[in-house]
Design a protein that fits this description.
Helix 6 crosses helix 7 and helix 6 crosses helix 8. It is built from nine helices and nine strands. The chain folds into two domains: 44 residues; 245 residues, Cathepsin B, Chain A. Strand 6 and strand 7 form a beta hairpin. With 324 residues, it is α+β, with helices and mostly antiparallel strands. The radius of gyration is 21 Å and the shape is globular. The structure holds 2-acetamido-2-deoxy-beta-D-glucopyranose (NAG) (4 copies). The site of one 2-acetamido-2-deoxy-beta-D-glucopyranose has 4 residues, from loops. Keywords: Disulfide bond, Glycoprotein, Hydrolase, Lysosome, Protease, Signal, Thiol protease, Zymogen.
Length: 324
């Protein structure tokens, strides 16, 4: 072998610090997630995967309230992840003015709308489009409608992606559930998932009023940072849409109660919208039970738990739900 070439190989290997074991882990992950790469991409992804895996292993060796795992995002950097799966820009939800009235009713130590009846559709997958806000919106309206009517009907995210721009929403580049509920209210209806299916990219609005299947009478915004109002609403009324700031530790979440010291907690930093479907407490740590939109293979069957009572990552900054 040419000495120079050999040297180049050696230094490349040491720069990457990759072992056969790393490649073995990567190949089993590739098989599990059906990934195929070009030769060049293979080495790039192997490096990113290995960096992620080391970070995950290190986290799991520590004493944390949640574990990380190698999920479908294990071959991506946070910057790539952010571009495809979060709102491209943090949303400023400071215009979400509160109008919630607490029931002041006693509420139980734990609530889980998944177990109360048929109120939640299966976890959906937003794909690589910053449309989380549409899934938070449909998830909430689906459950509020099912609680009111006894009928659970999957609703259209694509209509919100394509048609809700006038309410400060931006399709695959972000939006907010409170603004999407306003759109549905003024538009006088949202179509079903079947009639207006999801495509994961924005296109021309194809709303058909005669096929409107769900309606909003009023939008209720929870007072900014008032997490007790969120508890009250989830305990006495229905699941609640909220937004929070996702940072790099969250994409590898596996199970347990997520908590972070990296994220911000204000209205101008939220970048992901989801649905609180219940709450509880584990060894003295209160948590929310949350439906996400990254498929049922992510987290706990598509759900996650996040620490409750501390406005963790701004989760109480702008939460809302519709009245039907
Ligand atoms: C792990 O963390 C918990 C909660 O922060 C603490 O109570 C416990 O003592 C810690 N255990 C170890 C071994 O550090
Ligand atoms: C958010 O919007 C409010 C007005 O709605 C504005 O006063 C504030 O400066 C904005 N914050 C950021 C960070 O853009
Ligand atoms: C709720 O917040 C949205 C913006 O997020 C706003 O447009 C709407 O006016 C608010 N509703 C009430 C009743 O204040
Ligand atoms: C945000 O976090 C800081 C630091 O922990 C805290 O002092 C502040 O009260 C929090 N603000 C909100 C709105 O939760």
């Amino acid at each position: 072998m040419d000495a120079l070439f050999f040297f180049a190989l050696l230094s490349a290997a040491s720069a990457f610090r990759l072992s056969e074991r790393d490649e073995f882990h990567f190949k089993s992950w590739m098989a599990q997630y059906n990934r195929v790469y070009s030769m060049k991409e293979y080495y790039e992804r192997l490096q990113i995967f290995t960096d992620n895996k080391r970070r995950i292993d290190k986290h799991n060796e520590g004493n944390h309230s949640y574990t990380m795992g190698l999920n479908q995002f294990a071959d991506m950097t946070f910057a790539e992840f952010q571009k495809s799966f979060l709102l491209s820009e943090p949303q400023n939800c400071s215009a979400t003015k509160g109008n919630y009235f607490s029931s002041n009713a006693p509420y139980p130590d734990s609530v889980d709308w998944r177990k109360k009846g048929n109120y939640l559709t299966p976890v959906k997958n937003q794909g690589s489009c910053g449309s989380c806000w549409t899934f938070s919106t449909t998830g909430c309206l689906e459950s509020v409608t099912a609680i009111a009517t006894g009928k659970l009907i999957p609703l259209s995210e694509q209509q919100l992606v394509d048609c809700a721009q006038d309410f400060n929403n931006h399709g695959c580049n972000g939006g907010l559930p409170s603004q999407a509920f306003e759109y549905i209210l003024y538009n006088k209806g949202l179509m079903t998932e079947d009639d207006y299916p999801y495509k994961a990219f924005g296109s021309e609005c194809k709303y058909k009023p005669e096929l409107a299947a769900a309606f909003v009478k009023e939008v209720v915004n929870i007072t900014a940072y008032n997490e007790m109002e969120m508890v009250d609403a989830v305990a006495t009324r229905n699941p609640v849409s909220f937004a929070f700031e996702v940072t790099s530790d969250f994409m590898h979440y596996e199970q347990g109660v997520y908590t972070s010291t990296k994220c911000h907690n204000t209205t101008d930093k939220v970048n992901h919208a989801v649905l609180a479907v219940g709450y509880g407490e584990n060894n003295g740590t209160p948590y929310w039970i949350v439906k996400n939109s990254w498929g049922s293979g992510w987290g706990i069957d598509g759900y996650f738990l996040i620490e409750r009572g501390k406005n963790m990552c701004g989760l109480a900054a702008c939460s809302s739900f519709p009245v039907v």
